[in-house]
Please model this.
Amino acid sequence: MELNVESGFERSIAVQGLKKKIRVKVLKSDLTVLRELGQKLKVVQKTIFRSRYGSLLGLLEVEVQEPVITALAQYYDPPLRCFTFCDFQLVPTFEEFSQILDMPTNKMMPYQHLEQPFSMYTLSEIMKISVKELKKEFVELCDIKGFVLSFLERHLCRLCEEESWDAYMDVLALALFGVTLFLKADSFVDDAAIKVF
Model:
């Protein structure tokens, strides 16, 4: 909205470029099971998890505020991938994200999106699961491929029983990447989140 004040008491109000209000559907996965699984880590394991993945576990305690997300979405510009306000654009930088999550980035390689699929073999090695079982659980949901969160939760329970803590921490981080940072579908970890992981 623009307000022009002319000489004297004459005023003209010109409405220019008002955006249509965007309807936003906020996805919120049920994180109760992941919270419980995160609590199973002992102090030493939490310290190791924090050194690997920063404050990723802390995201389980953040309350999603739908009105705030809806209000901010009105200013989001998808082609520019930033928030556009009257006279400036706002986008968190990679460094700001690393500070928010307390993730050390100085020894990390930059992520380069490649159109090739991730390696099931490598993922099976990380998750301590057979490639055959992993492929069976890799499903398609609304044109998105990935893992259903319930599969990862079941696998985490199994890893906890086996006390395979290294794999447990990696699978927990993968689940958190998928349902807190890169959420596309409710309770689903898609292949894009897996590639970033």
